[in-house]
Design a protein that fits this description.
By secondary structure, the protein is an alpha+beta fold. About 50% of the residues lie in helices and about 15% in strands. The chain contains five helices and three strands; from the N terminus they run αβββαααα. Strands 1-2-3 form a three-stranded antiparallel sheet, with helices on one face.
Length: about 120
């Protein structure tokens, strides 16, 4: 009977350690808002995040968004990627910021934008 109780105590202690590690890792979660462009090509929606050069697709726009979110999360979970893109990640991390809409006169050569605000081909 004593051996069984000792085993249960060890297992409970191991579980507590595991739970502590999980809580610690959850506190390191970073939330970012990332720009993603979505286009439709032959009935398939393609989502691209140019900041990180990650793309995905889906049958619907919502599916493409869900897929790019998952692809970005997997991509950004990698420590080497985090080191390589640390400057961009620091700029994109959620802080108390507001998005501000701005207008400016762009030339075709500086931004690749045509006269009606659409990207030129």
């Amino acid at each position: 009977m004593q051996k069984l109780l000792k085993y249960i105590f060890i297992r409970v202690r191991d579980i507590i350690i595991i739970v502590k590690n999980v809580v610690f890792n959850v506190s390191n979660v970073v939330k970012m808002e990332l720009p993603v462009s979505i286009t439709e090509e032959d009935g398939t929606f393609v989502a691209v995040c140019n900041l990180f050069h990650v793309a995905s697709q889906g049958r619907t726009e919502n599916e493409a968004i869900q897929n790019i979110r998952e692809a970005l999360e997997l991509f950004l979970d990698d420590e080497d990627v985090q080191e390589q893109y640390k400057d961009i990640i620091n700029l994109c991390m959620s802080q108390k910021e507001e998005l501000v809409s701005v207008e400016f006169n762009a030339t075709k050569t500086s931004c690749g934008i045509g006269s009606k605000g659409m990207p030129s081909s």
